[in-house]
Amino acid sequence: MKKTNQVRREFLKKTALTTAGIATLGSVGFSAKSYARIIGANDRINVAIAGLGRRLGAFYQPIGLKSSNVNLVYLCDVMPSQREKAAKNFEKVIDYKPKLENSILKVIEDKEVDALINATPDHWHAPGTWLALEGGKHVYVEKPCSHNPYEGELLVAYQKKYGKVVQMGNQQRSAPESIEIIKEIHAGKIGNAYKATAFYNSARGEVPVPQKAAPPAGLDWELFQGPAPRREYTHDTWDYNWHWYGWDYGTAESGNNATHELDVARWALDVDFPSKVIVDSGKYHWPNDGWTMYDTMDAVFKFADNKTIQWDGKSRNGYNTFGPTGRGTIIYGTEGTVFIDRGGYKMYDRAGKLIKENASGSDEGGTQLGGGGGMSTRHVVNFFEAIRGKEEQRSPIAEGAKSVLLCHLANIASRTGEVLECDSSNGHIKNSKKASALWKREYEKGWEPKLKI
Known about the structure:
The protein has 453 residues and is an alpha/beta fold.
């Protein structure tokens, strides 16, 4: 990035386009639009987006903002229709055309690209990120940052090696109201915070039983699989349902949505790695459909100082057990309680009386598919400004990986049916070889990470 900035600064010096020379722009062939792109070029970030599915809406506004001072170089996806749709939508916020590319590998090879937004499916999150780091890019990686615990450790090690900014897409870390109330919790406003209940409930429907089929027209199925072991295509896999069709690509609802609320819970309680994980889970809805994972989970994570995080996850039962939006976190303290969701927070005293609240008016609440809104915009802009050294990074990968590890441990406990005893210094499983075997995954030959930890 420093080298790139130096080249751009030299370009500005050579062109001698100073304020005093603005009036002569027309005579030297520069339009107002061209000049606007040159001004601030030494601070401009060239960005690529890989993965143009449901999270794409989160990136229109932050990239379109003039104040972001970014140049969208690539829109990349293994499905042509996704690339074309994304390009059409970006016409509403930018006045130039990014390149459309099938392969994330080609994007990473392009030295013009400074930063990658990695919004690919879960099995690509960590490999796409470490390949981008090897290619000299900063990375905004969507949640969950990894497909398994080992990959989370790898990303932390890769970030340390290459020194780039790696931000996970747990956007509530950039919500002003959440930042405000977490500071108050840490300052003791509800006494000693000892427990957090994180929850998500949705009314997802029946999914088809996967049937072997030809890949949809245009889909690069080989590249979609990427680091995952090869298998034949099955109907309806590539478009979202990969979340529920086995463990090659997805991380179940824990990785999909618990990521957000467990992150807020861990942040509020100021804890790192658990000592014990206890899970009760099962698939209760449409027992014969194509959904191969649990659809309901209760998980308990025990930490030092007798602190506890509880996860209540209901993928296919929309009953709002705790709050009106179907997702959020409740923090219990010795002197009060706080309810936090994407709409803000409410603080109660020990008797249950409301004593303070702050509503965000967020346009990003609830459990609807997709994304985009004020929190995501702030989070992506924070990524850009952290690259420039102008803001403190809201979600360094070392923090994001700790929260995602809770999701992975819950999945492992669910898959093995065991209570997990963990090393509270790093989260490693101590009591089960069967569970420890799920710490890593198998890679397609040639896709193994180069860095060894």
